[in-house]
Specification:
The complex is a heterodimer of chains A (about 250) and B (about 375). By secondary structure, chain A is mostly helical. Chain A contains eight helices and six strands, in the order E-E-E-E-H-H-E-E-H-H-H-H-H-H. A two-stranded antiparallel ribbon of chain A has the order 1-2. A two-stranded antiparallel ribbon of chain A has the order 3-4. Chain B has two domains: about 230 residues, 2-Layer Sandwich (Creatine Kinase, Chain A, domain 2); about 90 residues, no CATH class. Classes of the chains: A mainly alpha (about 250), B alpha+beta (about 375). At the A-B interface, helix 4, helix 5 and helix 6 of A face helix 5, strand 6 and strand 7 of B.
Chain lengths: ~250, ~375
């Protein structure tokens, strides 16, 4: 299957950049679709960090609208995209999987991750791979993907924060621009901006922390981090953006 | 008891499932992609190495007549599934037949290593070395959370299935198979008949394998399997000894009859032959057949499948002729003077069983003690 899949589209939000992320959500039984660029997707809270979309379903229960499916950047296996409940890479629907018992492609796993986790808990000894790490070509492709995604996210964040710095609300700290889009570094955690100020971590660091929190299934911290990121990067008023009621109180900073 | 526990364990197997990241899984890929997958795997295995090209034999399933496919299934080099027609299907088999790489079965790549006796680690190492060799040039589908991705979620994560083929006549005769299957299922281990899924246990041959592939590391999986298999082996020995202690005559009669039939019959169905050979193997393990060894019996089991028999004679044989050929094959192999095996002193046989003749010594086979 080809990567990415499709003709480049323009972001529905900023109408400037290429949409690389497709979001589907069910609102009152109707399916709404959005095509977003990485920057807007992050700003609206659809993507955690670096396009690590496999993380999304785990955050879903915390505050994302019900029925939200994921989103993807590039990699053949890292992200998966489902429109409705169809993997857009191979076209498999979740119902087809249920009746046939077979996934269509590697990306189906990310696309249906939230549906698969309960299944894994039943049929397997856990829902997390603890075995051997990839080597050779698999590892090389993963490194390239990670570097590219980190670079894209940095670029998007930089574009995002520069033109429209939003110092409107109270004493909200300013969004620090991401690091310059330099050569991709393998260990993305090391790619922190060099101008680390004395005080609080910036959005990229918080996103990295968020990613790690999701990885270790520490959803409470993840929710806190997500809220901090949102507070740092959202313009004061997000026009037309749906209210996301926090299901659990007391998690905001 | 014996090296590699060959009195109970016939062979060990490790299988690793992988898919190429770039393509949809075989169940959902078009024939062109299937062909590309096969090309990639072949290139990854053979590129830049004459040695590998010499070490492996490549067979495209579409090119194989039905008889050859069935013979490969009987020798456990390919699955029944792969033997069916399908785009881009092929198998790469090492010359010693310990290793086979199935392409475009349920997953793009399935590597299996089979080693004699209780040797799970050896089989795993062989399979892992092979998969690592391929991975140098092939990017496999991998997900940070789910690990190596497979068509069926029951294989995802490590993609590792390890198994031992065990001979359990003690369990069968002692009525202990069902409890064993139940108790192992609770530990997420499966017990199946000889040729894997959907096959019936012939000749008290069973395959014990791990069910879970995700949430455990490869080391944990094989350590668990070793532990479980070792306890099955011990239990089987206990059951055999117990059977022999409680009913020595009945057991020795059973072994003696089977040996007599195998050495003298002119027609043997596969089913009967397997059953009789199972008795013989039990007799060998209990020291009732000193002129035979388990390797000879196992070798015979491998030769008497319908496809293997016909393949050896290079032609289709009608069923009755097959039974005659099978009986002849077994007679020839077991013809060591035609003597009945000396029984233990408890057996009230009239004296003088002819001493074991000087006939052909049994083929040591790969798993000779």
């Amino acid at each position: 299957m080809q990567r990415g899949g499709g003709i480049p589209m323009i972001c529905d939000q900023c109408h400037k950049r290429d949409a690389t992320i497709h979001v589907t959500q069910a609102v009152n039984g109707e399916t709404q679709e959005m095509n977003l660029c990485a920057g807007c997707a992050m700003r609206l809270g659809f993507v955690s960090a670096g396009g690590d979309l496999s993380a999304l379903p785990f955050l879903e229960g915390l505050s994302f609208p019900a029925g939200l499916f994921k989103v993807s950047l590039g990699s053949p296996v890292k992200g998966g995209t489902a429109v409705g409940e169809r993997c857009i890479h191979c076209g498999l629907t979740f119902d087809e999987f249920r009746s046939g018992g077979r996934m269509g492609c590697g990306r189906c796993y990310a696309a249906f991750a939230h549906r698969l986790l309960p299944l894994m808990k039943r049929i397997q000894s856990g829902d997390r791979h603890t075995g051997l790490r990839p080597t050779g070509a698999t590892a090389r492709v993963m490194e390239q993907d990670a570097a590219r995604e980190a670079r894209e996210a940095r670029e998007a964040a930089a574009r995002e924060s520069r033109p429209e710095a939003p110092p409107t609300v109270k004493s909200r700290p300013r969004v620090r621009p991401g690091p310059p889009a330099g050569p991709p570094q393998a260990g993305s955690a090391d790619a922190a901006p060099e101008s680390a100020g004395p005080a609080e971590p910036g959005v990229p660091e918080l996103r990295e922390e968020l990613r790690k929190a999701v990885d270790r299934e520490d959803y409470e911290s993840a929710a806190r981090l997500r809220d901090r990121i949102r507070a740092l990067s959202e313009p004061a008023d997000t026009p037309g953006e749906k209210d996301r009621e926090e299901k659990k109180g007391g998690q905001a900073p | 008891m014996t090296a590699r526990d060959t009195d109970v364990v016939i062979s060990s197997r490790a299988r690793l499932a992988r898919n190429l990241a770039e393509f949809a899984f075989p169940g959902r890929q078009d024939p062109v992609s299937a062909g590309k997958v096969a090309d990639r795997v072949r290139e990854a295995l053979f590129a830049g190495s004459d040695h590998m090209a010499r070490a492996f034999r490549r067979m495209a399933i579409a090119d194989l007549p039905p008889l050859d496919r069935s013979a490969l299934v009987e020798r456990r080099l390919i699955s029944r599934d792969l033997a069916q027609d399908g785009p881009g299907r092929e198998v790469l088999v090492s010359r010693d037949e310990h290793l086979s790489i199935m392409v475009n079965e349920e997953d793009h790549v399935r590597i299996q290593a089979i080693t004699p006796g209780f040797s799970v680690d050896e089989a795993f190492d062989l399979a892992l070395r092979t998969v690592r060799y391929l991975e140098e040039n092939l990017a496999f589908a991998y997900h940070e959370r789910f690990g190596y991705l497979t068509a069926c979620p029951t294989n995802v994560g490590t993609g590792l299935r390890v198994s031992v083929m065990v001979h359990l006549p003690g369990h069968v005769l002692g009525g202990a198979i069902e409890p064993l299957v139940d108790s192992l299922r609770k530990l997420r281990f499966a017990v199946r008949g000889m040729y894997g899924e959907h096959s019936e246990a012939g000749g008290a041959l069973y395959q014990v394998s791990n069910q879970a592939t995700l949430g455990l590391s490869e080391d944990e999986i094989r350590t668990e399997l070793r532990r479980v298999a070792a306890s099955v082996v011990e239990r089987e020995r206990t059951l055999r000894r117990e059977l022999h202690r409680v009913q020595p005559l009945a057991l020795e009669d059973r072994v003696g009859r089977s040996l007599g039939i195998l050495r003298n019959a002119r027609l043997l169905t596969a089913e009967e032959a397997l059953q009789r050979l199972s008795d013989l193997r039990l007799g060998v393990a209990l020291g009732l057949c000193p002129d035979l060894d388990a390797g000879t019996v196992d070798d015979l089991v491998n030769r008497i499948g319908p496809a293997s028999l016909q393949k050896a004679r290079n032609r289709d044989l009608p069923p009755q002729e097959r039974d005659a050929v099978r009986a002849e094959e077994i007679r020839t192999r077991l013809a060591s003077g035609g003597a009945a095996p000396p029984m233990t002193p408890t057996a009230p046989t009239p004296a003088d069983p002819t001493p074991p003749g000087p006939g052909t010594p049994p083929d040591p086979g790969p798993s000779a003690p």
